[in-house]
Amino acid sequence: MSSVLVGRSAELAQLRGALAAAPGAVLVGGEAGLGKTRLLTEFARAAEARVLVGGCLELGSDGLPFAPFTTVLRGLVRDIGIDGVAGLVPRGDTGGLARLLPEFGEPETDAASGEERARLFEVVLTLLERLAERGPVVLVIEDAHWADRSTRDLLAFLIRNLGTVPLLIVMTYRSDELHRTHPLRPLLAGLERLDRVRRIEIGRLPRGDVAALVTELLGHAPPPGLVERVEARSEGNPLFIEALLDDDGTLACELPESLRDLLLAGVQRLPEETQDVLRDASGGSTRIEHALLAAVSGLDDAALTRVLRPAVAANVLVVDGDGYAFRHALIREAVHDDLLPGEYTRLHTRYAEALEKDPGLVPAGRLWVELSYHWTQAHDSTWALVASWRAAGEARKALAYAERLAMLERVLQLWDKVPDAAERIGADHVKVLEDAATAADEAGEYDRGVRLVTAAIKEVEAADGECDTARWAMLLELRGRMLYQLARPGFVEDLRAAVDALPAEPPTIMRARALSTLGNYVRITTAIDAAREAALESLSIARALGDPVAEAEALITLFCARTDYENEDPLTEVEQAADRCGDHRVLLRYHVIRSHFLEGAGRHEEAAAVAERGKELAREYGVVRTQGTFLSINQAEPLVSLGRWDQAVAVMSHALEQDPAITTRTSLLVLSGWVALSRGDLPTARARVERAREIMKLKLKWLKTQDYFSTLWLEASLALEEGDPAAALEAARPVLDHGGLPDDARYAWPVLVTAVTACDQLGEEAAGDLRRVEERAAGLEISGPLQRAYRLTYDAKLAKAHGLPDRAAWERAAAAWQDLGNPYYHARALCRAAESALAAGDHDGAVEMLRTAVEITDRLGAAPLGEQAAGLLRRTRASRTGSAPLGLTPREFEVLRLVAEGRSNRDIAEELFISVKTASVHVSNILGKLEVTSRGEAAATAHRLGLFAAAKVRA
Fold first, then answer.
1. What is the DSSP letter of 783?
2. Averaged over 73-90, what is the pLDDT?
3. How far is CA 278 from the centre of its chain?
4. What is the pLDDT of residue 484?
5. What is the pLDDT of residues 699-729, one digit of tens each?
6. Beta carbons within 8 Å of 217's beta carbon, 6+ residues apart
7. What is the distance between the alpha carbons of residues 283 and 349, in angstroms, rounded to a whole number?
8. Is the pTM of the predicted complex or chain greater than 0.90?
9. Edge-to-edge, what's the strand order for the sheet holding 317-320?
């Protein structure tokens, strides 16, 4: 079992809260394997209390009486001895406890009256309460679903009669064991009505916690796809997750014996005829319709209902609409795996034949998938292949790309077993490979897609007779797109080869699309002119042939090749073309580029809204993991700009949980790292930088500006926050060397602002670097209000770096950021403007700006900047309202605080931006008002009165 508790922080907090509020009781329920015992172990480990634990035994509802209390008493005797226990009971008489533990001798009487029972209960309660008088006590009774009647009665008595001492009773039970007539049900219902009783229902782990647990169990990050497979089979049950992982860190192909025993225990207690039908039901999915099960089992409705009733009563099956579902998918799997080989084949054959005879036995859309499954399990390759091909077609109609890929891969697996496969499905092997690769591309399974399309390319090249050039080019284009998504070399070469293979005359839509794709990907390199040429030729062909989809794609590529954030007209043309063609890929690309444009233009609210609409389309089209996660960048970035950081972090976290392509992951890491940095969480920011850097090592061959420059910007910003301007400048240096990339100015300006700050902090030693920064900035064009705001910020920082602080420059920058609705950068500019104001002696003006900055940073949770602003505000000498203790003015109170820290008049003057003479006057006034004769006496008075809890005396 994992030594680290995963995903139970809320439940742990509830238990700790209950202990703090004791006396009371907590009822902890949940399915088997969800970690109730693990939760209690972690709670007990850290609890500042004596923890007594006893467990009920699985001996039926009338098993060993008081079993958990016997265990508790035995442990207590072991800890404090029989005499110690005797000292806790009335008159030291332990005779009553002998009914629970033989070590206490024989019971006082053999009578088994109600009175004796009541006395026993009172003795146990007194024992626990007196123990709790010495310090908090937690009594844990585990597995109460197996509790005998006596144990349940004693538990009810203790909980209902809790006094005032810090005694917490915790009872755990399996909620999945509580059938309708279970004797624990009425006890729970009664206890829940008590004021001191809380109920905690433990749920299954969400995907993020599954990933954390798998990582903990493996001792390293899991390989791609493992978490999804573990989650699918375990359904978030921690016990099942641990049992499903083999020692080598792979997913178990078969259920471990220990887990199978656990799952089958409830089934094996049922009547044999019920078990027979459950075996039939196991051949279906987790949920099976009543009519289908009747057809497969051969029972009529009445007989089937009668036979299944015990399974429903025992909570092995649950009624689900007009069908049934196994309580947990792994129960079905365990029952299914228990079938003998002959039973297994015959069962699935019966399913397939029943469905072919009456397709209405399953909901619409499920027929071919069900037939594919059952014929495959029945080892009938021919009909499994046909059904899988048909199922892939149905999945395509439903935009279920991952499911389509799975069906097509099944066709490929069965191909060699069916001699006339091509005739059966009306498609050759290359066509199946091509369709599977396309489905992989759409599902975001790029690695699998590359393997599939490469196999198709080899078959086309090896075919007898003349090579099918058009098909070959199309496959190269497909592989090029996926290689780019994987950040692997060769994608540009594939795309160029595809274009070269397609003749310019006569013009074809295939060439137009190949050109558009080439332009779209070449534009991320420095070959921007080549990208524009390819896009223009593609547009010309598309319009000549009247293809609206190809036209829209060419317009998008042309727009992206060179973006002018001052001119929205080209984007309007793209929007009209996208609406005309109605193609979902084009519509999603439009939402990507429009939200990107709007954010780059500083129109943050609009950008976030467009990205959100795009994500809704991605969900509708079934491409959440690909286009949906990419659009998450375009949604999160404006949310960060707007200061809606919590919302942005939620968007990014969800996107990262989808295991996006690395071309998407980098931006998510950088953005989330920047938010962490701005909130003072340097370890998280550092982790994000390192992960982004690892990805960039794979991508330096073509340097995508958005990813490359943004990673360097975060790295430089982090180095500055860590007090290392030299490292910050080193991180920013590649931006000085790589000009001319697409969207250069948009992503270079933030880095140059950071670089100027580093040069300013380094002083003369960075003079040469500062000149290089200025030269790089001089070569950048300004496009849109966002870049103008960065330029204004850069100008203000540059002036300071040259020793000429410019308050007006900072105020212009602050106004620009305010106009854009960017609260963080607005606050940062206000702080710098306030510094300039203070240096010029304008304390009133500085206070106004600093108060605004503090308000903004408090709202954002931007601790480092907020502390800077608050520190500056404390040191100003503007007029203040209110009063201070001891008849002092607010300014004198500030001076007294510094005197208490042992500061000299010169120190005080520097701290509060006042003259030494003024500081001396304030000190004299303080001595007079406190009626003391020295600074030491004034400091002692302040300490004695506790005026400054955290005063620090300087050495």
1. -
2. 87
3. 37
4. 84
5. 555 557 888 899 999 999 999 999 999 999 9
6. 2, 241, 242, 245
7. 10
8. no
9. 287-289, 323-326, 317-320
Residue 1 is predicted with a pLDDT of 45
Q: Give the Cβ contact number of residue 195 at 10 Å.
A: 6
Of 244-248, 519-523, 639-643, 682-686, which range is least confident? 244-248
| b (16+ CB within 10 A) / e for 821-857 | ebbbbbbbbbbbbbbbbbeeebbebbbebbbbbbebb
Q: Calculate the average pLDDT of the chain.
A: 87
Point out the least confidently predicted range of 57-71, 512-526, 837-851, 864-878: 57-71
Angle between helices 401-414 and 381-397 (to 10 degrees): 160
Dist. CA 284–CA 183, nearest whole Å: 33
Low-confidence winner among 170-179, 286-295, 617-626 (lowest mean pLDDT): 617-626
User: What residue has token string 């008002």?
Assistant: 929
Residue in 200, 176, 172, 169 with CA at minimum distance from that of residue 56? 172
Amino acid making up residue 575: E
End-to-end Cα distance, the chain: 52
Helix (H, G, I), strand (E, B) or coil at 270: coil
Note whether 58 and 173 are within 8 A (CB): no
Instruction: Say how many CA atoms lie within 13 Å of 165 toward its Cβ.
Output: 20
Place of tokens 């779209």: 520
Vertex 575 angle, CA 573 and 577, to 5°: 70
The helix (H) or strand (E) run that includes residue 510 is: helix 509-522
The Cα–Cα gap between 70 and 50 comes to 17
Identify the bridge partners of residue 139 per DSSP, sorted by sequence position: 52, 169
Note whether 635 and 608 are within 8 A (CB). yes
Residue 858's CB is within 10 A of a number of other CB atoms, namely 14
245 φ/ψ angles, rounded to the nearest 5 degrees: -85, 125
Is residue 900 within 8 A of residue 939, CB to CB? The reply is yes
